[in-house]
Amino acid sequence: MNVLRTFLRSCIWLWVPPLVASFAFWPKLGSAYQPEFFWRDIPVLLGMVENVARIATISFSVIMLMSWRTPRQRLGLWIYVIGISLYVACQWIIVLNPTGWWATSALGFLAPAYTPAIWLLGIGMMGNQSMVGRLARPHFYFWGLAGIFLAAHISHAYLVFTRL
C-alpha cells in the first residue's frame, strides 16, 4: 500500500466533521460554553486529564486505518454518521433557543459532551486495523483513550452546569 493511500485511509480524517461543527457552533453556544467561563474553577488535574486524553485520542486515530469492508465496519460508519448528526443537532438546538428547556436542562447542556461517545464508537468500529504492523486491535486502545477523555469531558461539563 503506498504512503498516500495509507494516509488517506487514516481515521484522523473522521475528526474533520466534529471539529468543524465544534468551531462553527462554539462562539454561538452562549457564555457558559466560552473558555473564560467553561474553564473557570475546574480542578487542574481534571483539566489535565481531559486535555491529555483528548490529544492522545485524536493522535492515536492517525495510525488507525478506516475501512468499510466488513458488516461491523459498515455499522461503524452508520453509528459515526448518526453520532455526528446528533452532535450537530444538539448544539444547533442550543444556538436556536439558548433559554429553552434543552439548553437549560442537564440533558441538553451536557449533550455536546456526551454525544461524542456515539461517533467515537463508530470511529473505533471502522478503524480496527493499524498502520503499525505489530499493534493488534487498535480500536481497543482507541476506545480506552476515548473513554478516559469522555469521562473527564463529561465531568468537566457537569461541573460547569452545576455553576449555572
Automatic annotation (TrEMBL):
The chain crosses the membrane at residues 7-26, 46-65, 77-95, 101-128, 140-161. Keywords: Membrane, Transmembrane, Transmembrane helix. It comes from the Bacteria. This is Uncharacterized protein. It comes from Maritalea mobilis.
